[in-house]
Amino acid sequence: MKNTRNFIYLSLMALALVFTACRTEDEELINPDNEQNTTIDATVANLIVRTATNDGSGDNILDNASCFNVVLPVTVFIDGLEIIVDSEEDFQTIEDVFDEFDGDIDELDFLYPITIVLADFTEVVINNETELAEYVAQCPDNDDDIECIDFQYPITYSVFNENSELIDTVTVNNDAEHYAFINDLEDSDIVSVNFPLTLILSDGSTITVNNIIQLEDAIENAIDDCDEDDDNDYDDDDCENCTIDQLTDALTGCDSFEAHKLKRNGNDLDEQYEDYRFSFTAEGGIVATGAGNVFDGSWEASGSGQDIDVVINIPDLPDFNDTWGLHEISAYGDEVKVDLRLSNGDRLRFKCDEDDNDDNDDDDDDDDDDDDDDDDDDDSDTLTDIMMDGEWIVALFEINGNNETASYGDYTFDFDDDNEVEADNGNDEEEGVWIVSNNDTIFELSFDNAPLVDLTDGYEVVSVTDDRVEVANGSKTLVFEKE
Predict the structure, then answer these.
(1) CA 334 and chain centroid, separation
(2) Is pLDDT of 101 > 60?
(3) Gap between the Cα atoms of 274 and 349, Å rounded
(4) Smaller CB count within 10 Å for the chain: N or C?
(5) What angle do CA 181, 187, 191 make, to 5 degrees?
(6) Residue 349's closest CA among 215, 207, 238?
(7) Cα dihedral sign, 8-13-15-18
(8) 282-313 pLDDT, tens per residue?
(9) How buried is 415 (Cβ within 10 angstroms: 0-12 exposed, 13-18 middle, 19+ buried)?
(10) Contact 153, 181 (CB under 8 A)
């Protein structure tokens, strides 16, 4: 316990002395009858400090440290891919990049300097990887903070100092102020809480406490009430709150899924089933189409949270059949993914095939008013839409003024809506990652192998048309043209 020396226990005699001392008319008085129900002792002070401590576990995907967090925005690099992290919502982008390819080693590096906030809310500027590693090494294996319950602010305290016999009223408005207030108290301070207090539980519900005993019980009861996620397994809570109803809605809410990822016994089977489409019914039916055939099957789910099992049985497609564990349900706009996994590393990810659905919708719209639709498309097309429309070639690539375009003359590039890009030179295919961010002003591209690895970088968008996209940074200029 930090600074527990600051808190004293009151005896009946001390109470009598305190509250019979002479005071002016304007001085605030603490009611002795309520003192035992409102005055904090060392145990309660410990619980308050642990609850108000800065929680650093929310951004472990960035820093691998639960005792501090990184101040946003920051720029990070993953295998050469530059990502600007403006908010916690961007953590999902990082997770998507980490999850994109099986078996690779994802390394995240910061563009320094960065600022971190320690458990006591102290801010520290970090200038390089070595300095960051020193702070990571200082983090304990088990954090002492309490994350499963929070205070609702503001909270008001009355502080009586025995030496001066003065009473001060202090209002704290957030965890940082609360933490500092408790730790700055003097040995001679007697602290009384202004009840009632409202506390927020990990499920979002609230409880009200009216005295010290209730406050102590509420915090202690909540300590083990949630997964504080202090480990560095960034995706171990992807389905912490998943339900079978949520899974059913995801699977039945899309007319056509593709088997976006299928890995069995170490073998990637994505391409084998890339033309297959799957539809699910709420009654547990599956209809798969592919290779000119229709395959009937069934699905069934049981369990809850991180322990939902999904049994898939399509008799004529045995590669899909197993009792899968539900790993993640993700939805971004109209895009839905359902990720299933086995303990041996096998994966099955269904992705809602929005391209097929959108094409059908577009055909219907064209029948209504072709001219109006063309105008609407021109106005609404984003860089992401344009890149996913067709295949592209490298029309120009310069590094430091040297024209390297010829190295990519045989390649065609196919950008999909899952941040994957496939480069094909007729003999080999290589998968990379691409991201458009900051309202279509940043284009990021990453490949692992030569010569494509030279394209890896973050670029500013220079110009965009339906058939030509130019991006550049200080050393590189890259122009894609539609094939």
Answers:
(1) 19
(2) no
(3) 12
(4) C
(5) 50
(6) 238
(7) negative
(8) 999 999 999 888 999 999 999 988 889 999 99
(9) buried
(10) no
Res. 235: pLDDT tops 80: no
The answer to whether 468 touches 396, Cβ cutoff 8 Å, is no
State percent of the chain over pLDDT 90.
Answer: 48
Q: State residue 301 phi and psi, 5-degree precision.
A: -125, 145
Nearest partner of 85 among 102, 101, 108, judged by Cα: 108
Cα separation of the two ends of the chain = 66
CA distance 84 to 73: 7
pLDDT of the residue at 238: 63
Read off the pTM.
0.56
At which residue do the structure tokens 């503001």 appear? Answer: 154
pLDDT tens, residue by residue, 311-355: 999 999 999 999 999 988 876 556 788 989 998 878 898 988 554
Say if residues 225 and 201 touch (Cβ distance below 8 Å).
yes
Q: Which residues contact 248 (CB under 8 A, 6 or more apart)?
A: 282, 301
Token output for 303: 């369990």
Q: How many CB atoms lie within 10 A of CB 76?
A: 20
**Omega of the bond prior to 32 within 30 degrees of 0, cis?**
no
The reported pLDDT for the residue numbered 22 is 34
pLDDT digit string, tens, across residues 387-397: 999 999 999 99
- Which of 7-21, 406-420, 431-445 is predicted most confidently? 406-420
Placement of tokens 């990049």 in the chain: 97
* Distance from C-alpha of 480 to C-alpha of 483, rounded to nearest angstrom: 9
Question: Residues 138, 139, 142, 144: is their CA dihedral positive or negative?
Answer: positive
Question: ∠ CA(425), CA(429), CA(432), 5° rounding?
Answer: 110
Q: How far apart are CA 160 and CA 155, in angstroms?
A: 17
